[in-house]
Amino acid sequence: MSFFGTTPSTSTAPPPPEKDIEVTDPPGDSISSLAFSPVADYLAVGSWDNNVRIYEVGQNGQTQGKAMYGHQGPVLSVCWNKDGTKILSGGADNAARMFDVTTGQSQQVAQHEGPIKCVKWVDTSLPVLVTGSWDKTLKYWDLRTPNPVATVQLPERCYTLDVVYPLMVVGTAERHIQIFNLSNPNTVFKTITSPLKWQTRVVSCFPQANGFAVGSVEGRVAIQYVDDKDSSNNFSFKCHRRDQSATQKDQSLVYAVNDISFHPIHGTFSTCGSDGTINYWDKDARTRLKSFDPAPGPIPTTGFNRTGTIFAYAVSYDWSKGHSGMTTGQPNKLMLHACKDDEVKRKPTKPR
């Protein structure tokens, strides 16, 4: 097990009530993905520096680096297994790796012909990892065997993937969205074209597994239900946009929606963008609950802990402006926000 330093780096003073807490010893390069353990306040973070870091978050928000393991290329996705004993990660080295929290050992568990953009754990009776790659395939892995148990051909490169069993949604290049019922994982249940006009950046399944949200590079989010009978509830809305000036309100600056995270208790959700802002939304009331502008620089990835009391977000370059946008002095920060009920609770429905 690799520790971050010879002495633990902690921040033990309780935080000011309104201030977000900065995680100590963040990655030195862009942060691509983060995920909380499903059983404890441990945070796994993947970075373009080829490493996955694991942090312990204390009661007052103090953090401590606990372990770190590496890939042979940038890490693009991280997740946990159901019981919180394993961390899974995929990267630009075309490999997925598994880190055992109890032993501190990591091993390769999956291989593609192109970078693995997404890894997700599937909660079934069997220990199954699903990987989505830029090689235009989706693979299912039983971690007890070296070869994939199934491979599904995708219409294009996998850009984003999410699972809330039995629903799995995959977003690819060219705006294809493929919907799977994981009780029949080898067959696509439904294929649609994204309701948004520009490149898909993220898909995120509803906690009830009856629909999903889509975010795109054009600063827009779509709410989509799986069943046709619920299609009247589908809608899209603009976000992560700024007016160029008070006199040019019809010429907005448009930013990518980088991540969408659903609250595990209330079912509300967050969006974050290249504009450096975060919004909390209530999809049923079709309203924004909160907006905050926490730090200069894009926000590439976010996540709630298992109880919905902590919201983690990264501040780092998201490559939305390509290589030329990677200027010196770009921040790389991990931040923790203490969630208040009035920020994340659904609005009461008005009587008709």
Automatic annotation (TrEMBL):
Keyword match Repeat: yes
Annotated WD repeat ranges: 24-57, 68-109, 109-151, 257-291
Superkingdom per UniProt: Eukaryota
InterPro entries in UniProt: WD40/YVTN_repeat-like_dom_sf, WD40_PAC1, WD40_repeat_dom_sf, WD40_rpt
Similarity remark: Belongs to the WD repeat rae1 family.
Region listing for Disordered, in residue ranges: 1-30
Biased segments, Low complexity type: 1-12
Any Pfam family matching the protein: WD40
The protein, known as: Poly(A)+ RNA export protein
SMART domains, sorted: WD40
Alphabetical UniProt keywords: Repeat, WD repeat
Annotated coiled-coil segments of the chain: none
